[in-house]
Amino acid sequence: MEGDTGTVGTDRQTDRQPRIDLKEFLSCRTFVGSSDISSILTPSELNHCVMILTCSTLKMAESKDIQVKELDKRASGQAFEVLLGDPAPDAKGDFPLSPPKKKDVSLEEIQRKLDAAEERRKNHEAEVLKHLAEKREHEKEVLQKAMEENNNFSKMAEEKLNQKMEANKENRTAIMAAMNEKFKEKDKKLEEVRKNKETKDPTSEGTSED
Fold it and tell me: If we measure between CA atoms, which residue out of 40, 38, 35 comes closest to residue 8?
């Protein structure tokens, strides 16, 4: 047996049985019958395992709520009976058996809660009124701006129309002046033609006098 490595086995039975892990054996992960233990462990190894189990059981027995009772020894080993004690009367569980009782609320506490609720209602109403006033002010500003833009557009349109009418009036005056000038020149030419004709044909003038 190798005490430090945690493995048990027999040198004389190496050909028949493989060596096993001591921790696995003690934690009951390896299940063997009483008839197979003698073929796996030597008497010294078996006594060593019994001592380890006894020490572990005695450590558990140090608790006040656990009692260990040794039973009769048998040829296959030694047995123990573990008795769990009753829970302490003042022990508190993780979850209470009954829900906690609600504490009585005084009239002052009720009045205080009502006053707080009324204060919250007033604050909320004031916030709503403030929001509505801001919204109306914004709408008023938008409407005022739209009216100003409309007035500016109307003024600009009127100014453009006046400028256009003035330009048309000036053009019409210039056209009339040009036409009058042409008429004057035409009348002047006709007068010159008439005078020239009278100068060239004096007989016609004397005949007309007779």
Answer: 40
